[in-house]
Amino acid sequence: MGEQQSAGGQIPVPVTKPRLAKMEAERHRTSALELHRMTGTARPHCRTTIAGPRREMEATESAEPTRPDLFYETLDALLTYVNRILGLSELDRITMRCRDRRVLEEGSRVLDALWVHRELIGTFVRENPLCLPADRLACALPWCHAVRDLFACVDVHAEYAVYLGRDRLFAVRPVLGRPATPSATPSLARLVLLPFDGHIVTDSRIVQLSDKLGPGGAEQLATHLAAASRQPLIETASQLIAFGKEVENP
């Protein structure tokens, strides 16, 4: 999707539903928040893969949500809330599951902001401004421990892909279908890893930075991989949360 443009200021989005009135109050209380452009964002030549379904899926609150529904309905609601607080997009609803490229780009920009201001996740869960059911709130709460970093995809299995972080290996599963992976292995990608349904998933994106290793890159990768392989594979949601807490509080 290329380099994200910095926000040009807050754009007021009218709240048209009574249940969103509380959100508008929260927006005024947090008007002092400023969104800073993240360093190291994807360059124009990078390729971004939106993982998971891209079609609109509307589930009723009375029905038991499917695994993809639970993930994307929670993510979309959280992004819509973050956008109303930070005023990044004119869109009234932010979603990461549609076919419109512009909508996906707007959603990706709000996602980037979310990981800068992840403290908003706690407020979202605590105040529940969109009146979500308990399972959606429980899904969103541990995302405050998301792990955002550069990773190298080093192996692909039927149910998950193995990504090498700075010093650990992670088993990353898809929300739906086969694992979404870069076009080549090994390759460098920017990921945000989330705990979900007992496993580890991405925040719906894989930002591929390079599929070619520079001079000496193969040797460095092999050394790094050998060291990481001596530690257990991080493959469960609880393991990712524990790792995220260690990163936050070394």
- Strand segment count: 7
Decide which structural class fits the backbone: alpha+beta
The CA-CA distance between the termini, in Å, is: 33 Å
Q: Quick one: overall form? A: globular
Mean pLDDT: 78
Taking pLDDT < 50 over at least 5 consecutive residues as the criterion, the unreliable ranges are 1-46, 52-63
- Biggest sheet statistics: 7 strands, antiparallel
Give the radius of gyration. 18 Å
Strand content: 15-25%
Number of helices: 7
Work out the helicity level. Answer: 25-40%
Run of helices and strands: HEHHHHEEEEEEHH
Keywords:
7 helices; 7-stranded antiparallel sheet; alpha+beta; 7 strands; 250 residues; disordered N terminus
Can you tell me about this structure?
The chain is of the alpha+beta class and 250 residues long. It has seven helices and seven strands, in the order αβααααββββββαα. It has helices at 21-29, 67-86, 101-116, 119-127, 134-140, 217-229, 237-248; strands at residues 47-50, 147-156, 161-164, 169-172, 187-196, 199-202, 205-210. Strands 1, 2, 3, 4, 5, 6 and 7 form a seven-stranded antiparallel beta sheet that branches. A hairpin with a 2-residue loop joins strand 5 and strand 6 (199-202). The longest helix is centred in the first third of the chain and has 20 residues, at 67-86.
